[in-house]
Amino acid sequence: MTRPYRRKTCVVCGNTFFTKWSTRTCGSECLRVLKAQTMRDVSFDHGRKVWTKDMITKSIQAFVERRGYIPSATDAMVKSRQHGMPALSTIILHFGSWNSAMREAGFEPRPRHKNDYDRTKARRKTVKVRCVACGKMIKAKSKKRKYCNFNCRERHYRSLKA
Structural domain boundaries of the chain? Predict the structure, then answer.
């Protein structure tokens, strides 16, 4: 089903035009003018708090005074509104990283957690096994594997039946 054309009046120049869509301007030039007007007249806070670097550093210092510990990035991610802090994305946008924001606020950032998980130990070792059907050497995760692929397995089972 197609949309019907509607007669509209351009909010910038006042010309009438026909359109299927919910546009407010008659063309791209009027749209550019409208965007320029809105950017000059309206601040883009959308009812939210607009954070500056100074406000962020003060909120971090206030958090430390209230709570008694240096906040982690998780505190900013999970409970930023409860603590009166900006969201983690806002802090990273202004400072580049969480640790640089902590340094700017006058605190030494927490050390990164050293992960005890060693990737070399977790990687499973491969074992070389000879395929029972064709005799080719294959790499397997365990010695239980006897065939290099499904076709070799089927060929071997057929030979056993015959």
Answer: 6-41, 53-104, 125-161
